[in-house]
Write a structure and sequence with these properties.
This is Exodeoxyribonuclease 7 small subunit. Helix content is about 70%, strand content about 10%. The chain has a two-stranded antiparallel sheet. A hairpin with a 5-residue loop joins strand 1 and strand 2.
């Protein structure tokens, strides 16, 4: 899964959308559906981590002395 962790957010979302489409069609063998479901769960975790990291980055700003402070404080 370490190789998957390097995937770009947009690529992960595209793969996740493809998996959802395949699973919704319901015409794939059970084993393949389970494999795709597991892959989808892993991709979801990657997307969640990426979004959480982006939120933390955006919630921080720099003061004049280059010290990071939460965005909400002034």
């Amino acid at each position: 899964m370490s190789a998957k962790a390097n995937i770009k957010f947009e690529d992960a979302m595209t793969q996740l959308e493809n998996i959802v489409t395949n699973l919704e069609q319901g015409d794939i063998p059970l084993e393949e559906a389970l494999e795709q479901f597991q892959q989808g769960v892993a991709l979801t975790k990657i997307c969640k981590e990426t979004l959480e990291n982006a939120e933390k980055t955006l919630a921080t700003m720099m003061e004049e002395n280059d010290k990071e402070v939460p965005f909400e404080q002034e």
